[in-house]
Amino acid sequence: MLNSMQVPAEVMRKWQEIVDLLADILHVPSALIMRVEPPNIKVFVSSESKGNPYEPGEVACLNTGLYCETVMNTRRPLIVPDALQDEAWKSNPDIKLGMISYLGVPISWPDGEIFGTICVLDKKSNEYSELYLRLMLQWRDVLQADLRSIASMQREIEQREAKIRRLVDANIIGIVIWNVEGQILDANNEFLRIVGYDQHDLQSGRVSWADMTPPEWRDRNAMTVSKLQNKQAVQPFEKEYIRKDGSRIPVLLGVASLEGTEGQGIAFVLDLTERKRAETEARESERRFRNMQMELAHANRLATLGQLTASITHEVKQPITAALLNTQTAQRFLTRQQPDVERAKKAIDRAVLNGMRISEVVDRTHALVRKEPVRKDRLEINEAISGVIILTRGEALKNDVQVRTQLAEGLPAIQGSRVQIQQVMLNLIVNAIEAMSQMSDDRRELLISTQAEADRVLVAVRDSGPGLSEDTIERAFEAFYTTKSSGLGMGLSICRSIVEDHGGRLWATANVPKGAAFQFTVPINSDCQD
Amino acid sequence: MVGTTALAGSFALPRFPMSIAADNTDPLVLIVDDDEEVRFALRELLLSVGIDACCFGSTQELLSADLPERPGCLILDVRMPGASGLDLQQRLAATGNTRPIIFLTGHGDIAMTVQAMKAGAVDFLTKPVRDQTLLDAVAAGIEKDVAQRTAARRIKQHVDRYTKLTAREREVLREVAKGRLNKQIAFDLGISEITVKLHRGNVTRKMQATTIGQLIRTWELLPAGIREGSP
């Protein structure tokens, strides 16, 4: 593994200097650093000295009886003063180049594996003194120190690369290398999955981020690229890619330029399909929930108003009766033998007023029957409550309930939905009347009051009915809890959600001396005050 | 109540029409309805045909009012706060007030109608009501009251005359009314037949009857209490 390691350029320059010095000091034509690359050995660095026949990069086969082979095999220095005089060396390959003497020492990697040799060769017989050998060994140590630092740097790079590889190969997010020409140079499998391409497409250069970008995103892309020229990364942003099959996919894209490259960058791509779907689902279920709440509230209003049908009918029939009587009276005054225009006019005036009252009652009822989205406006709570009291007046009458009101004057306005606040009042009043109607002889009294508190308005509906036991007080607001034979038991639960939706509170207590008291608060909205 | 306060002012009117003198014997209709607009409209309709009317907002108001002795009828809303129209009907009947009652109701409730009619209501009308229907009912009510009052006056005359009879004359009258002969009466009372004839002549004269038949009819018109209670 170490064998294949690159030696950085600056080290190469230093080594060149070493062999040059070596050749110069020893007065030899060749000083070399050889590197083994099985099955060959290569001239790694060659001194730039006169008469040096070895070119850097030259390769020779091993197992041919080279000097260096022996050095590497024995791992020991070798001195051959004159090969021509030495039986063992007189036919070695270097003699053909005229190199008849040799001094070389082995170089090892930090892990002990052989790197090659550092050696000098001469065309004449050379004894190479002990001092030269020591000098060679010193240079060798310098080279080995360099190899150690290269190896450790390499290890570091490898570790770092492994971590990045892990990230890339884990395929949790898509990672690509891209260039400004619009190509995807490299990508992991997750990215290919996101955009629906495969390795083959990638290798044949068919994957292009420019092509995958929908037209409406092209400007944004150009902007990103230009931004990248000024800084290294841009804020991640959401966009869409066109997949190979033409469909679109939402992604989150983070882009950074690659330092030291010409117009290349790296990007991570996150598939947002799942998240978008979840968001849509959440929105949909929120919408369904709102809808259901609205339906439920509407159903409750209808049901409650249904209970009041007779009373409301009465409330409408009274002015209708008066209006009809007044118009018929006017006719009579006009068609008499001596028409009385003055009285007829008065009767008609009154009929007009009757008509207005009819329309008032109808409007008031219709407002509660309508199904419409909740709108919170500036609301005078007393006025809203009075409307409900009029609607329920007949019901109170029918059940012989006396209604008293203590509505505080000059109450600050609240921010609220008229229909919803009226719905709460409608429920509370109808409940109270119903509770009292179960009693036999006692005085039936309903007290409706409003008052201002620090930052809110307090509304109370008190009855003199049988009251609530401690257990019922707790359970009264639960959905589907009811003590009545009719009804769903949703009323109070709906009322509580309405009040809480207005930022207030609804609760029940015992009334003094008897009966139940339901109270709720609604915060005063300072925006509403003039 | 809130919505109607504005209207109340313009509908305010005196309970009794100003022009009516205390000794007036023209018909007077009493209107009881908790809705001021309805009360007012009813009164105006009656005025348009020349019938006086006065209005009450509740049964209590009516009961505590000092009513003039004038023929007429009541127009009564069935459903009112406090005592209902049907309650009032019973209260009035109990106190011997026989003014005919026309009920008005927002919705025709059969049970209520039956109860009211059994208790002697003239009519039971549903709101909104046609003017002619109402006026017909009022006319019928007034007619009935006038008849009742005439009948009552005649009975009162008879009772007045009866009270002027002596005890013996009353005994003789009762026996005559039973269809008994003079001698039977004389025997029962232990007096002579002549004396019976004398009493009989006095009774006929005092009761202002011209024939025996007339005398017997007069007797029969007397209230039962008097007929049975006298010795």
UniProtKB/TrEMBL annotation, chain A:
SUPFAM superfamilies: ATPase domain of HSP90 chaperone/DNA topoisomerase II/histidine kinase, GAF domain-like, Homodimeric domain of signal transducing histidine kinase, PYP-like sensor domain (PAS domain). Keywords: ATP-binding, Coiled coil, Kinase, Nucleotide-binding, Phosphoprotein, Repeat, Transferase, Two-component regulatory system. Its EC number is 2.7.13.3. Pfam families: GAF, HATPase_c, HisKA, PAS_9. It comes from the Bacteria. Residues 311-526 form the Histidine kinase domain. It catalyses: ATP + protein L-histidine = ADP + protein N-phospho-L-histidine. This is histidine kinase. It comes from Bradyrhizobium retamae.
